[in-house]
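in:
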């Protein structure tokens, strides 16, 4: 297999301004331990999210029972917009929500680990023209589609 990295990004912990105006911002600003006092919305996953401190080398693994769990980031975004709680989102899902400040990052001093997005294909002496063209297209268009990604 051959892989070519095209983007590096991290998920962000976000909430709507309406949720924060309900007095939740004081709970959130106390740090990751206080997330148990917030309504956390989560994508169904078997892994516990890990947050890293940008100020020191601490790492915490979050354990919580989500208030709402689903398997679709678009649906999770709708719940976040409605002020139902806080949750993590990848930057590629409806980036205009962050750009327009309809969702804002909370606890920016704590970061999720970064991910690399790569184009992967079988290594062949002469791979097909369509594979080569798609790879070139993905490498060229990804930075244009996502000019600013959190890392």
């Amino acid at each position: 297999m051959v892989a070519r990295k095209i983007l590096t990004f991290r998920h962000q912990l976000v909430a709507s301004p309406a949720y924060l105006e309900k007095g939740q911002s004081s709970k959130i600003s106390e740090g990751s331990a206080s997330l148990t006092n917030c309504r956390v919305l989560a994508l169904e996953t078997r892994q516990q999210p890990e947050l890293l401190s940008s100020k020191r080398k601490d790492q915490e693994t979050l354990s919580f029972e989500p208030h709402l769990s689903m398997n679709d980031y678009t649906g999770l975004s709708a719940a976040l917009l409605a002020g139902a709680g806080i949750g993590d989102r990848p930057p590629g899902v409806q980036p205009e929500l962050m750009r327009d400040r309809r969702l804002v990052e909370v606890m920016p001093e704590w970061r999720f680990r970064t991910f690399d997005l790569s184009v992967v294909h079988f290594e062949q002496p002469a791979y097909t023209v369509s594979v080569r063209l798609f790879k070139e297209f993905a490498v060229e268009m990804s930075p244009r589609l996502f000019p600013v990604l959190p890392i």
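note: The first helix runs from residue 17 to 29.
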